[in-house]
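Weekly puzzle thread! Below is a chain. First person to post its structure in token form gets bragging rights.
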Amino acid sequence: CWAPSTQASLTTVMTGPDGGSGFAEMFAGSADAIDAGEIGTRAADKAVASADPREIDAGTYTVVLEPAATATLVGFLAFIGFGGRAYLEGRSCFEGKQDQQVAAPSISIWDDGTDPRTLGAPFDFEGTPKQRVDLVHDGVFRDVVFDRRTAKEAGRASTGHGLPSPNPEGPFPLQMFMATGDASVEEMIASTDRGLLVTRFHYSNIVNPMESSITGMTRDGTFLIEGGEVVGPVRNLRFTQSILGALSSVSMVGRDAHLESEFFFSASRVPALKIDEFHFSGVSDH
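Winning reply:
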């Protein structure tokens, strides 16, 4: 089987005055769909706005995550939770949670390699046609994805998620979607008494896969929100947070979804999120 496709991306990080930095990126199926000027302007504006950041204490904050930061949570959840092998071997954070509430009711996540709004071929590396798999629906855990080997072990059919051999990790979803809501980022900020606006995360790593815990740092635009307004930039912070805990604390979901990539071989179409409780464990020196 074969399928023609093209992919394009532009990632921009700009260094601004007095320690400021800004980030913007776009993924698309064609270079014609990428507005380089808009991306550059957005990154430059962030760099200027984040100059001379002040230091704040670590702790639990309300956060407004822009889509690039949301993609980190979704991307890591794909790897540690939604793979058929991890689930069958009892290593998934969804172990024992079938049909249970694992996130806020506003959270629905699915994988669909046939959707024209994502990137990639409509079949997996074993030649199996891809299909939509509802992973979390209205906050309830529904299913994981399978390749041929794990499907046979589970008494199921492959969902079209085989990866290149040799592959000791088994299958996991590469083309995920998160359902949108009805809020803008501006409305999320306006509804926040005190919190943080986060552009993106970096150096993220798994802490405890069974607890869906990861750690990492904010980067390229982290801002303090007070009284429903962004009042200024802050020094980057290190977070240590359960992904399912964060998704259970979602109170607002963005109305617009963007194609973002946490890992170079996958992409997720996700919105911004307002999360009422997000734990920051320390101040970054970067």
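Puzzle host: Confirmed. Bonus trivia for everyone else. The chain has a mean pLDDT of 95.
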